[in-house]
Amino acid sequence: MTTAQTVLVLALLSTAAAMPAIAADTTCVPPNASVPAGGNTTDPKAPFFIDTTGLDLKTTPPTRDPHNPNYPKAAELPDGAVPSIDSDGNFIIGPTHRPSPETVAQANVPHGTVHTFIMTSADSVIYRPGMVRDDMLDCKNSAVNSASTALGDKSDLLVPASHPGSWTREVDVYVPAGYVAGTAAPFIVYGDGGRHSFFKEQMLFNVLDNLIHAHKLPPMVAIGIGAGGQDAQGSERGREYDTVSGTYAEWVEQEVLPRVEQNAHVRLTKDPDRRATMGFSSSAAAAFTMAWFRPDLYHRVLGYSPTMVNQQWPHDTALPGGAWQYHDEWPGPLKPNLTVSGNNVTPSSASNGIPLIPNSPRKPIRYWFEAGDRDLFYPVGPVADGMHDWTAANEDMARVLAAKGYHYQFVFSRNAGHVDEATEAQTLAEALEWLWKDGSGTDSR
User: What are the residue ranges of helices labelled H in 133-195?
Assistant: First the structure.
């Protein structure tokens, strides 16, 4: 058993031991979408403050006001318009979301080909064993929605129903029409791929066909990697996408891309400026994490409703806020940061509460991202941690990216929910053009 496997198993066992087993529920526990019971909404100086400024709590989830004084200023565009590919900054669109013409297949445009192959945990080194959570039959995420948190820490969700297991996933590879064998192609890799994902892959392939044909994008490969299974804390999908480290990027580099080249008969560029990541919800957080920890591999990132909140599981004492700490300080009580080396646990001199982006040198990342006015808001009732508002998280991402001088475009979408399909269809073509602006085509590497 590898070190990574040992850490995973020990984390799962320690979580299970932290609380007694939960008796089987007789009814499905629905997800929450409002301020959790016992949430701190009154004292900003107390731990785990939940800011409800600018929220219409009469809707489920609450509807956000894009002109919330706590959000960075944004340019409001006419209904139906999207930001120019020549502009950076914050924008408000909607409430009408008509699909762009590039989302529709055109008879006179050459179509790329799609190759599909299967990956399993039995063949993996980095993600073997996988992670499986025992939910109630026909009740998605029931073990999460009915869980509890560690004593004194509302951010540390206990999920004893999670245990080592196995996974199988599809990988879809789009190869553009006219690809010349042997050339090093630029590519975009995205999570939540495969035929069973909630993202409409065919829409992406149509957009690529049309933009490549119009010479608005270089001929590029698109790699859709299926999630490892289930969702949220205690699942393989959550483990891969919500962990704030370079592990997922390294898995893609070492285990996925060689299979892509072999099965789709392509050669992929090594140039990080010709590589992009993309995702949806937690896979959007993973897309940013891939570039943040491995800017030697990726410079361009696109995300819809990125989960820049506290979803990392198992709980990490060195980064207790998970992806929330990209942009904001840890809002919980101060506690010691520990360094684990083998069997030795010692105090660390580094703070576990500081946000990553404001306290790191600017990285060569170009980032397009979006959140809806009815995006996710505290979906898990037990977690009243001040770090589960998706829209607030992305507004704060825009704030810290601007302060550090990043090239980014943030879109606040009116009349839009989480990973809003209508918003995707309206914005994807221009988002890809903006993302690839100043990018070049194939190279020799």
Answer: 142-145
Give bridge partners of residue 158 from the DSSP assignment. 148
Helix (H, G, I), strand (E, B) or coil at 201: helix
Who contacts 26 (Cβ-Cβ below 8 Å, separation ≥6)? none
Asked whether 187 and 222 are in contact (CB, 8 A), the reply is: yes
DSSP single-letter state for residue 49: B
Q: CB under 8 Å to 27, separation ≥6 — which residues?
A: none
Dihedral angle of Cα 82, 310, 33, 164, to the nearest 10 degrees: 110
| pLDDT tens for the 445 residues of the chain, in order | 444 444 454 455 444 444 333 333 347 888 899 999 999 999 999 999 999 999 999 999 999 999 999 999 999 999 999 999 999 999 999 999 999 999 999 999 999 999 999 999 999 999 999 999 999 988 999 999 999 999 989 999 999 999 999 999 999 999 999 999 999 999 999 999 987 665 689 999 999 999 999 999 999 999 999 999 999 999 999 999 999 999 999 999 999 999 999 999 999 999 999 999 999 999 999 999 999 999 999 999 999 999 999 999 999 888 999 999 999 999 998 766 666 677 777 766 666 789 999 999 999 999 999 999 999 999 999 999 999 999 999 999 999 999 999 999 999 999 999 999 999 999 999 999 999 998 654 444 4
DSSP single-letter state for residue 152:
T
Residue 236 · residue 227 · CB < 8 Å: yes
Q: Which two tokens stand for residue 39?
A: 């949430």
The residues spanned by each domain of the chain are 3-21+53-329+365-435
- Give the span between the Cα atoms of 386 and 415, in whole angstroms: 24
Please, which residues bridge with residue 187 across strands?
Answer: 221, 275
Query: What pTM value is reported for the model?
Result: 0.92
Placement of tokens 């997800």 in the chain: 31
SS3 assignment for 161-189:
CEEEECCEEEEEEEECCCCCCCCEECEEE
CATH 3.40.50.1820 is held by the domain 3-21+53-329+365-435: yes
Strand spans (E) along 353-398: 366-372
Q: Residue 184's beta-bridge partner residues? A: 267, 443
Residue 419 CA to residue 396 CA, distance in Å, equals 18
Tokens representing 245?
A: 């480290």
Contacts of 342 (CB under 8 A, 6+ apart): none
- Measured between alpha carbons, how far is 417 from 428 in angstroms, rounded to an integer? 16
